[in-house]
Design goal:
The chain has nine helices and nine strands. It has helices spanning 8-11, 19-25, 28-40, 46-62, 101-105, 161-181, 205-209, 212-217, 242-257, and strands spanning 16-17, 67-71, 83-85, 87-91, 94-97, 106-110, 126-131, 137-140, 143-152. The strands form two sheets. Strands 1, 2, 3, 6, 7, 8 and 9 form a seven-stranded mixed beta sheet that branches. A two-stranded antiparallel sheet has the order 4-5. 16% of the residues are buried.
């Protein structure tokens, strides 16, 4: 079915290797082992990891993926990834597409690429990624993204995700303890659901090219102060302009395909470019 003819429920999560796809593609034993790993924190056997990796690779290649990457969030403020192809030599002049359980479960990223403050030699800068089975893998730009955590050879945390997972685990333990005090004996896990309110600024490319401060710093360094009230209709109920509406439509489709619950679009019109001051934590 063509992407343009799919309904939103059919489109939602189509690029994500989620639980439904695992149930369809894994054996009953492999699926149950993955479920226990998710709910009880048990270790996956190598044979089970191989089955999951093979099913994930088959699904990803059907979606057009040619590479896979261990995707992680180092303490640099940006995400990181190293792409490897599924190609594995088969015979002298042929290859097969393969992803093993070992390649799925762990990888080694060159940690010399990350700041160390001069505390370690380059040849000792070893960083390791480990698959996080609590986050679904997804396909984006012909690449299978495998969410991972990042740690050093000695086990020190080098990413921003591991502390979050540890906090979620501690909240789970204490929440279950509180539920037991209130007489709830059925609940097994409490999963916190927290998400940011994404805010971004749309700037015409021609105007952006004229602003050296935006190009160099990603934010406004000079300009007039923006209006504070609703004198110029700059509020949540401002009508969405056609160009902005088209951008939001395209963005929503991409987010829905990745299983992101994008729901509300709000537009705050800004004054004319010569009167605009924009402050954004991200480059435009």
């Amino acid at each position: 079915m063509d992407e343009n003819t799919k309904t939103i429920p059919e489109l939602f999560g189509c690029m994500v290797f989620n639980e439904d796809k695992m149930r369809q593609r894994l054996s009953a034993d492999a699926y149950e082992a993955w479920r226990q790993c998710m709910t009880q924190g048990t270790t996956l056997q190598r044979s089970i990891a191989d089955q999951i990796a093979a099913a994930m690779k088959d699904w990803a290649t059907e979606m057009g993926a040619t590479h896979y990457t261990h995707w992680f969030q180092p303490m640099t403020g940006v995400t990181a990834e190293k792409h490897d192809s599924f190609i594995t030599p088969d015979r002298k002049d042929s290859v097969i597409m393969e992803l093993s359980g070992k390649e799925l479960s762990r990888g080694e990223a060159d940690a010399s690429s990350f700041p160390s403050g001069g505390l370690r030699a380059t040849f000792e800068a070893r960083g390791y990624t480990a698959w996080d089975p609590t986050s679904y893998a997804f396909v984006k730009d012909k690449t299978l993204y495998i969410p991972t955590v990042f740690c050093s050879y000695s086990g020190q945390v080098l990413d921003k995700k591991t502390p979050l997972l540890r906090s979620m685990s501690r909240l789970d333990q204490q929440s279950i303890r509180i539920l037991r005090l209130f007489g709830n004996t059925e609940a097994k896990h409490v999963i916190p659901q927290v998400g940011p309110e994404q805010e971004y600024f749309l700037i015409d490319k021609g105007i952006y090219q004229k602003r050296e401060d935006l190009k160099l710093c990603g934010r406004t360094l000079f300009g007039a102060r923006p209006p504070k009230g609703q004198e110029l209709d700059d509020h949540y109920y401002g009508s969405i302009r056609p160009r902005v509406a088209q951008f939001m439509h395209d963005l929503d489709l991409e987010l829905w395909k990745l299983g992101v619950f994008a729901k509300t679009d709000r537009y705050i019109p800004m004054p004319t470019p010569r009167q605009t001051t924009i402050s954004s934590p991200w480059p435009c």
